[in-house]
């Protein structure tokens, strides 16, 4: 599957840790940054795939699950450490669920918002990846 857990380097200090993301950590230039917060535990976010963009999802606070699907296989990845991020490459359907109270999901994206890059219907996604 076109996903990978990335270990984000951290500097440990008795005053608190620092995680550092620089150009050698992720395989793309960051073009967009956004974050999800105040998500009710019963809500689902995502529900789409990207044709070209890559995204790195980082749980800055709390925890959540990411359900990923490549059209053949499905996995559930639990994210709960701010020094581990989920790299989702192109053509992977994703849904985020089971948000803990106070969860914050930071997303670093390889592209600016472009509606044409989104596949927002799962049946359309299956047709797209099975046709490639």
TrEMBL record:
Transmembrane segments: none annotated. InterPro entries: QdtA_cupin_dom, RmlC-like_jellyroll, RmlC_Cupin_sf. It holds the Pfam family FdtA. Residues 1-129 form the Sugar 3,4-ketoisomerase QdtA cupin domain. This is WxcM-like domain-containing protein.
